[in-house]
């Protein structure tokens, strides 16, 4: 999976990122730590407000579900206890979905996770570790029982697949080591062998993507230093 | 609004004093509109408009729907303008009850939808039972003032750029041809309304402004966020290239006399002309870049 | 041992030599010690500085480009009064949307129960952070001379990194050059008063509006430009404001 990313395109929020991966294009903004509303406040840690807005139409249950999954991935990697009784606002605007059927949200979810990570780094929110996320599809080869694994499937490939998956891993140590599985979200028809296969080949891809994200952030740091 | 932006006394005092001495903070002239940058995405009807730091994204989409019972020959057209904290943390998600936000939505609605900029009769497929429902979703990405002006440009550029899939009608049956199969058709645009917003500042006491003989208020076009927060009055004029005034909106604020309203309209017209040409030109260029290969593929070249 | 600088991202392993693990570690901004595992990791993306001020002593911090100010004791900040609380302190905003901090009436020079400071909502103050605990509201003080209200002038927001550079660049080179290069360039053109808040706010005041405006535009542009261009930026803006005066 390869992405084109821009760090900090927006000026009125603390951190932002714009990510393009194939047809999917998402912009993310992060503001925090700021004063929360009293209903959001958590006594010992940072509260997260996550909003995902679709390119066309009003936010629906599909977006709500994505928000929940994103929250599950992002919460463990933020050093939340550094910011008690504070709030971090994460807003994602999908500019181009890249998925024509509403039943699929794999490309959007994976891109949302990657965009949020880069925006969090840009905003200077303390993180315990990095993460990266790839969408995966399984299709059966024509005329045989063998399954074929497609990393970063396109819209067409999603539609013709047997099952679709999203894999997010927590990365530490210069993004070379996998510390934990943050999300493995699967949908469709698959068996245990397929799942292990996904974890195995997915790990290689996630590490590759982690390296790429690392490169994006490092080049931003370097360009900032030379500018002053 | 969640929490407001704090503006110190020093800032407000300085901004007004600078205006009195003919300066704007960003170095523009009083009647200078920011440069507009229109860019298109991969799909039809995907537009981003940038004016200075202000950034607005608009997405046009369409689907087949049922027309209203009392208007069987018309299609549906909806503009959605919802704020999110992306444009700035002062905006709350899903809370569009704020006065400014409602005003902004209403002005855009009036300027584009109610002025008949889109030919909604052309969206009718089968009278009374099937029509196109066109939807414009405006997303505010970065707020540095001038949301109304920028989103009007974004919606209009999106509508001009958008193409809906071609259809064939067999009695009650409608076949939609995917964009890949058949060349899609553009929407019918009847005129291009452009909003220009004027902000007024009162250099003297309020009393002087109401009772005084002469109007000394300072008029500024296309205010930035700081100017918007400190202004005493606002006027939005919507015009099109045919010299038609589509709407004049002035909700409260400093009183103004008829002559200055006229001069505002004249100033707005020259901006309208320029921006309209720019939108049309941008769409034309984008179509051209999309059709890079069509010349090679066309039958004329084959010979 | 030589000081080290290295680019780090959150969760990276820090290049600490085994011997330094026995020495006393001082953790600065951007470094976090996990209370459960006692692992020391960077939490920010930036340049990690590892220095050894004394033998058996190691200092660690990450120099990173933060956007939102988090109060730290001893920081010099510019705040905006947003109200009063309980009749004994002001509420002060250090950056938009952040938690407000408090400035007690007693934290002014010569303050007593009878002699109260007379600040109103919207006034700017230059102050020092007196206490800052993450669980508690931070407090400010204006006790030393030079602190207190900033009257008139103009305030602008800049990246925290830029404010730090303006404030500390002068410090570092004090013996050689005096103040930072940008301030010296400005001083060639006009007389000015300046207050630099480490919370990303710069207040500037000249005798005339046009000069203040020129300084305002220059600082805003210099935030985004390399040092080599400062000279031409300064010249251009002073020329621009002079033009309008003539008209």
Automatic annotation (TrEMBL), chain A:
> Which Pfam family, any one of them, does this sequence belong to?
RNase_PH
The record's section on CDD domains has: RNase_PH_RRP46 (cd11372)
Cellular localization per UniProt: Nucleus
The record's GO CC annotations read: cytoplasmic exosome (RNase complex); nuclear exosome (RNase complex); nucleolus
InterPro entries membership:
ExoRNase_PH_dom1 (IPR001247), ExoRNase_PH_dom2_sf (IPR036345), PNPase/RNase_PH_dom_sf (IPR027408), Ribosomal_Su5_D2-typ_SF (IPR020568), RNase_PH (IPR050080)
Q: Cite the GO molecular-function annotations of the record.
A: RNA binding
Keywords in alphabetical order, please: Exosome, Nucleus, rRNA processing
Q: Which Gene3D superfamilies match?
A: GHMP Kinase, N-terminal domain (3.30.230.70)
Mention one GO biological process in which this protein takes part, according to its record: nuclear mRNA surveillance
Which residues does the UniProt record annotate as the domain Exoribonuclease phosphorolytic? 3-125
The family annotation for this protein states: Belongs to the RNase PH family.
The protein's name is Exoribonuclease phosphorolytic domain-containing protein
- Protein source organism: Naumovozyma castellii
Query: Which classification does the entry list for the species?
Result: Eukaryota, Fungi, Dikarya, Ascomycota, Saccharomycotina
User: Which gene is the coding source of this polypeptide chain?
Assistant: NCAS0E01120
From TrEMBL, chain B:
**Is the keyword rRNA processing in the record?**
yes
Q: InterPro entries, from UniProt? A: ExoRNase_PH_dom1 (IPR001247), ExoRNase_PH_dom2 (IPR015847), ExoRNase_PH_dom2_sf (IPR036345), Exosome_comp_Rrp42_subfam (IPR050590), PNPase/RNase_PH_dom_sf (IPR027408), Ribosomal_Su5_D2-typ_SF (IPR020568), Rrp45 (IPR033100)
Q: Does the keyword Transmembrane apply?
A: no
In terms of one coarse class, where is the protein primarily found?
cytoplasm
In its UniProt record, which GO terms are filed under biological process? exonucleolytic trimming to generate mature 3'-end of 5.8S rRNA from tricistronic rRNA transcript (SSU-rRNA, 5.8S rRNA, LSU-rRNA); nuclear mRNA surveillance; nuclear polyadenylation-dependent rRNA catabolic process; rRNA catabolic process; TRAMP-dependent tRNA surveillance pathway; U1 snRNA 3'-end processing; U4 snRNA 3'-end processing; U5 snRNA 3'-end processing
Q: Where is the Exoribonuclease phosphorolytic domain?
A: 32-165, 191-269
GO MF terms, alphabetically ordered: mRNA 3'-UTR AU-rich region binding
Location of the protein in the cell: Cytoplasm; Nucleus, Nucleolus
Q: Kindly give the Gene3D superfamilies that the UniProt entry links to this protein.
A: GHMP Kinase, N-terminal domain (3.30.230.70)
Q: By what name is this protein known?
A: Exosome complex component RRP45
UniProtKB/TrEMBL annotation, chain C:
Where found, per UniProt?
Nucleus
A single GO cellular-component term from the record reads:
nuclear exosome (RNase complex)
The segment(s) forming the Exosome complex exonuclease Rrp40 N-terminal domain are: 25-68
Q: Which GO terms describe its molecular function?
A: manganese ion binding; RNA binding
Q: Does the keyword Cytoplasm apply?
A: yes
Predominant location: nucleus
Protein name listed in UniProt: Ribosomal RNA-processing protein 40
